[in-house]
Amino acid sequence: MTPTIKDVAAAAGVSIGTVSKVINKSGFVSERIRERVLLAISLLNYKPNAIARSLKQSKTKLIGILVDDISNLYTMKIIKAVENFAYEMEYNLISCSHNNQAEQEKKALQWLLEKRVDGIIIMPIGSDLDDLNVPNIMPLVFVETKDKNERFDSVIHENMHTSAGLVEHLYSHGHRKFLFIHGSLRHSAEKEKLVGIRQAISNLKLDIDEQNFLDAGTTLDSIAASVRNYLKHEGLPQGIYATNHLALAGTIRALWDMDIRVPDDIAIVGFGDIDTYGILKPSVTVAKQDPYEVGKIAYETLFERIEMDKPISEPKEFVISPKIILGASCGCHPIVNHRVPEVLSHLINETFHSE
Amino acid sequence: MTPTIKDVAAAAGVSIGTVSKVINKSGFVSERIRERVLLAISLLNYKPNAIARSLKQSKTKLIGILVDDISNLYTMKIIKAVENFAYEMEYNLISCSHNNQAEQEKKALQWLLEKRVDGIIIMPIGSDLDDLNVPNIMPLVFVETKDKNERFDSVIHENMHTSAGLVEHLYSHGHRKFLFIHGSLRHSAEKEKLVGIRQAISNLKLDIDEQNFLDAGTTLDSIAASVRNYLKHEGLPQGIYATNHLALAGTIRALWDMDIRVPDDIAIVGFGDIDTYGILKPSVTVAKQDPYEVGKIAYETLFERIEMDKPISEPKEFVISPKIILGASCGCHPIVNHRVPEVLSHLINETFHSE
DNA sequence: CATTGTAATGAAAGCGCTTTTAAATTATAA
DNA sequence: TTATAATTTAAAAGCGCTTTCATTACAATG
Q1: What is residue A183's predicted lDDT score, i.e. its pLDDT?
Q2: Which residue, B296, B276, B295, is CA-closest to B352?
Q3: Mean pLDDT along residues A158-169
């Protein structure tokens, strides 16, 4: 049905080896023959079968990207960045969401391996990948979470100090009673952020207990619902700190739903993407995570591994230090004369202006 | 390096044909042998090579989805829907953005064809696909735009009457001077919407000329910039009608930037996704486009074509009639006693409540 | 003229699998 | 025991390509 290299060879009156050489611009082919082959190709509307080529070459020009949920805005921007770079290198992306379900993650990973993708970028569900039997030779980079077993590269953010910084930011605006909304503690990132929070609590001698921590779920809706529910029963804290993009979005949504005004009624800070939260009014103070940068580094790291074509000897860990971008979500003026903790003053390097 | 079926066969002391039968649960294999083979598979951590299988079977279990931009919220939701259904059927998605560039679209499509995907879902840039030489046998469905050449299936919205309905909605709230923000007229959908607008203008005897139409671009930022620029120079109309999701988002962004209040200063309506615009305050009156539904129909149509495995004889065209969901973005009360045009009363079947 | 070198082409193997066909084994009946 | 059938396994072809290696054609050289 679809023409093969054989048909082209027959039409051009040459051997299939010669056609292959024309297509791949390899070896010696005289100009006269080359043109005849090219003509036959366009006449037959021949498209080389990448499957056959992949089988022969053991390269698929395919990158698998396995994430929590492509409809998560932050995640999607990472994918978009990877896609941009992959396009340049003529790679295509197989993208899968695991929707925070271990079973889906396992299945998707299995499919990617069977499809012999050249590399994998993974934002895992949190369980380690040991039982998934990913071979060491597979180029693979973790994103936003560390590899527990330290077998593979990862690109992550500095979480602990940044997290402490956000607490101190709230503190510096005079707030004392907080609610912390975080994600699943299976993720190394979330655990680190909590460590930072507890450190700050201890340093600042805050009166905060376990009741002020809320694991709100994995979807925007469930988070918003949890927050609404919490606020309804526990009343308003002075400040909310949402430890990740989704938690922050869910929190804002909940406040919106409940007509709670920021910063008049409550202060909020969080980790997130400035393009999303910077344009809000009032703009939200965030530890800025740039998904484009994450995608770029992830792609570059992966690409290098693919090119190297040998097992990972030394897994690399890229740590991006987020800057705290001041918004107006904590009230306009920090308490004057308040000691700004050292760590905080380092983090605040940049202020976001909405055009 | 990676174990092959041969290694498994050797380890289990059987032929590769037998191993294949075990993997595919086909033919007769005695229980004793089956267990031996299964053991060898897990011992070797063998993963069948989908490439080799694809070559043999001429099926890849891969669906290509070529869209304007995966980071477009509306588009992304379509992808998400397709992904959900594809997962059930054990298909993977190769997703590509063409970013509204003809060259990228062509290249991506070429890659998908070479990779022998089992089917393609495409939201084209608007140029017709004639010169892309997609073979008729390829299962392919257009989304949000018609196939000019009527070779392939498509799932689209009813645009003309719905569009007229939105104009009439603005009219019924007492507004007379409008700005129409639309996308590229290469898209059949956009053209149809403009036809509807002109019909309504003529029916309602509105005094509106070409200056009130704005082709604002293809990215959120460019649209927002165009709108800001227009409003700065031309002043405020009474109502803005943005003909698609992106135009609506850009418009809202621009109004936000300029501190123009809705509906106090201006009324807005548009085509869009209720999940996005329904939660805004004030909620925006939209002709509701449900990306999940679009994705579902697109996938089902495609899947049927893939299963049928024969050339398209009768291309189908699925037309979804959007309902106009009333928000508060045009002012609360339509002018009483105003004749509600027939078409409008049909469209308004549903009202959106935010929980 | 024979020899060597160079450029261009073709023949053939093989990538890892599925699937058809043939062969081997076992069970059943004569 | 032998013939026949039923069941199970092995052998081999081939999917469409790349790539190595051998071959051919031709010009240049001694």
Answers
A1: 94
A2: B276
A3: 95
Residues 6 or more apart whose CB falls under 8 angstroms from that of B337 comprise: none
Interface of A with B in 42-61 (CB under 8 A): 45, 47-52, 54-55, 60-61
Looking at the predicted structure, is the pLDDT value of residue B185 above 60? yes
- Give the Cα separation of B81 and B292 in Å (integer): 5
- Give the percent of chain B with pLDDT over 70: 89
Weakest mean pLDDT among A221-225, A252-256, B80-84, B316-320? A252-256
Identical fold between A5-48 and A160-290+321-351: no
Contact A119, A113 (CB under 8 A): no
Does domain A58-158+292-317 correspond to CATH entry 3.40.50.2300?
Answer: yes
**Helix A245-257 / helix A220-234 crossing angle, nearest 10 deg:** 50
Q: Coil, helix or strand for B316?
A: coil
Nearest-angstrom CA–CA distance, A216 and B73:
24
DSSP assignment letter at A209: -
Residue carrying structure tokens 């082209």: A8
Assess A232–B contact: CB distance below 8 Å, yes or no: no
A74: how many CB neighbours lie within 10 A of its CB? 25
A293-321 pLDDT per residue, tens:
999 999 999 999 998 866 667 899 999 99
Which residues make beta-bridge pairs with B181?
A: B214, B242
Confidence (pLDDT) at A78: 97
The answer to whether A94 contacts B97, with C-beta atoms less than 8 Å apart, is: no
Question: What Å distances lie between residue A94 and A64, A325, B82, B254, CA to CA?
Answer: 5, 34, 13, 35
Closest CA to B96 of B88, B87, B105: B105
Q: Are A123 and A188 in contact (CB under 8 A)?
A: no
B292 shares contact with chain A (CB less than 8 Å): no
Give pLDDT, residue A215.
95
Beta bridge partner(s), residue B66: B96, B122
> Structural domain boundaries of chain A?
5-48, 58-158+292-317, 160-290+321-351
**Fold for domain A160-290+321-351?**
Rossmann fold (3.40.50)
Contact between chains at B94 and A93 (C-beta distance less than 8 A): yes
CATH no. of B5-48: 1.10.260.40
User: Is B151:B136 a contact under the CB 8 Å cutoff?
Assistant: yes
pLDDT tens per residue across span B258-286: 888 888 889 999 998 877 766 666 778 88
CATH code of the region B160-289+321-351 = 3.40.50.2300
Interchain contact, A116 vs B87, CB within 8 Å: no
